[in-house]
Amino acid sequence: MNYKNLDELAKQVGGPLRLTQLIISRARQIIKKVPVLVETKLDDPVRIAFLELMQGKIDLNDGNVRRVRSSEFKNSEKE
Hints:
The chain has helices at about 5-15, 15-30, 45-55; strands at about 60, 65. By secondary structure, the chain is mainly α. It has a single domain (about 5-65), classed as Alpha-Beta Complex (Eukaryotic RPB6 RNA polymerase subunit). The longest helix is centred in the N-terminal third of the chain and has 16 residues, at about 15-30.
């Protein structure tokens, strides 16, 4: 992942602090066994959360992570 993409993601969610908050919140959910919204072989919750955010599967809503497209549970992009 390059830094330009990180900057773009930060702008989309309202800044770097909100991006960090989103990733941490989602990683905690993944650790608690909440279903993952992308198909991947990764086992790192933080990297999985980044993938979900980059693919538009999650969003920040009043400080909480929420699904954007629950109908798209699986994705063909794999790592």
